[in-house]
Amino acid sequence: MPWPSRKRDKGAVADKKEPDAKIAKTEEETSDKEEEEKSAKPPAGSSKSGWKNWKKAKESESGGEESKITYCHWLLKSEPESRLEKGVDVKFSVDDLKAQPNQTTCWDGVRNYQARNFLRAMKLGQQAFFYHSNCKEPGIVAIVKIVKEAYPDHTQFDQKDPHYDSTSRKENPKWSMVDVQFVRMTKRFIPLSEIKAHHLAHKAGGGPLKDMMLFTRQRLSIQPLTQEEFDFVLSLEEEKPH
């Protein structure tokens, strides 16, 4: 019996506790045809010094050479708090993932063409951050890995599912999903507010998070990360929260 849809993309809501973020056009308002054709200062503290220390360590490892920008990691948003969508609770936290057989689940319910294309670009073994979204304190809680590459999302054909799509055909499915498996919890919760402080500092003075999609396309539930973005965010788990 398939798991109920719980990941969310279409009609996504901006994360709470980010009132000063620019509100992007909702994915509901974005034309499907158009998408298909396209397929403030940080708080005082350790943001800039943290970037300098991270950069120094990375340069030491790589001889100072900058990596070519490619997307090889991901950020996956899911809602840890109950919310009904067409009578179905779409809640799915990292604890729900850990409770699944083999701590593995299908990442279904994505209904945005750009997010779908990101799903289709995922490769076996790639890692992603599990991000709690649309909750009191959004942020990164765990690391997961891709254990099955993109295949048709069964929920698009289920009339009882909130993500049912009457325009999709089994011979040519519109929507895809992947399977992900729990790897580990991050050593500490990394809140959106902390990531944003680094993003703003990097935007002003240079750094790997300056173009992070979490802030340029914050409503998108599937987001790519460069190796540099992933490594820097992961390095934050070693720092004391501030």
TrEMBL record:
The keyword Phosphoprotein is annotated on this UniProt entry: yes
Principal place of residence: nucleus
Subcellular locations according to the entry: Nucleus
Residues forming coiled coils: none
GO cellular component: a single term: nucleus
Keyword presence, Nucleus: yes
Known function: Specifically binds 5-hydroxymethylcytosine (5hmC), suggesting that it acts as a specific reader of 5hmC.
Name this protein carries in UniProt: Thymocyte nuclear protein 1
Source organism (scientific name): Scytalopus superciliaris
Taxon lineage: Eukaryota, Metazoa, Chordata, Craniata, Vertebrata
Primary gene name: Thyn1
